[in-house]
Amino acid sequence: MEKIPIEPGRAVLSKAGRDAGRRLVVLGTDETFASVADGDLRKVEAPKKKKHRHLRALPEVFTEIAILVREGGLPSNAAVRGCLRRLDGS
């Protein structure tokens, strides 16, 4: 089974911590940590820094967020919430 990379714009599921079970969007990453936000409890202005091993990558990538982050910008909290809401199908 091929491992899904944790990259900017990727939807992830938190496996550990207070936010366990919450879906988040990756805003940045390095070798060990990923900066994640959900636009609700965890805003994009103050993303949570989580170890990769505490996250499970989901197959969905939000290209609009990925492009914005690569260009050095930050998405709005509403945009992040909207992307995560699309995962529910609502």
Describe the structure.
It is a single chain. It is built from 2 helices and 5 strands, in the order βββββαα. It has one domain (10-88): SH3 type barrels (Roll), CATH 2.30.30. The chain starts with 9 loop residues before the first strand and ends with a helix. The model has no long low-confidence stretch (mean pLDDT 94). The chain is globular. The chain has a 5-stranded antiparallel sheet. The protein is α+β, with helices and mostly antiparallel strands and 90 residues long. The chain has helices at residues 63-70, 77-88; strands at 10-14, 23-29, 33-37, 48-51, 55-61.
Mind telling me the C-alpha Rg? 12 Å
Structural class determined from secondary elements: alpha+beta
Largest β sheet strand count, sense and barrel closure: 5 strands, antiparallel
* Overall average residue pLDDT: 94
Name the overall outline: globular
Please count the helical segments. Answer: 2
- CATH topology group: SH3 type barrels
- The count of domains is 1
Helix-strand sequence: EEEEEHH
CATH architectural group: Roll
In whole angstroms, the N-to-C terminal distance is 30 Å
Proportion of residues in helical segments: 10-25%
In total, the number of strands is: 5
CATH class: Mainly Beta
Low-confidence parts: none
| Strand line-up across the major sheet | 4-3-2-1-5
Q: What fraction strand?
A: 25-35%
List key phrases describing it.
single chain; 90 residues; alpha+beta; SH3 type barrels; 5-stranded antiparallel sheet; 22% helix; globular
